[in-house]
Here is the input.
Amino acid sequence: MSNPELGAQDVYRAVLACVPAWAKVLFKMRGMIASLLGLRHSADAGFEVAPDASFQIGQRVGMFPIRSIEADELIVGDNDKHLDFRLSIFRSRVNGVEMATVSTAVEIHNTVGKIYMVVIKPFHRCITSAMIQRAVNAGRL
Here is the structure.
């Protein structure tokens, strides 16, 4: 990371500010499919996080509710009858280099959740990588 002063909340804000237009289209399609499968989705929630956003547990910041705030980690995510997911932004120092690790965890509850993950997983990896790379290229990280 080029800016070692960024905290986990800053990294979250920077990455969500760099969603490619094609990913936003895919997200809208995901919303339609999720509705058909009975999954909740954040159709009205935007990606970007306001500069003055207050990060508090339980509050939705960007498209996800805040689950945990620690000195070096921010965890956001949501629960649904088909699956629960969490997104973690973890800040660390490895061999003197400031790092930010973005990871996700999903707990699948039933067949609909399994089908959903089979379809979404390849897109998720591509979109997440693109967002992080765009944030780096834009000098946000």
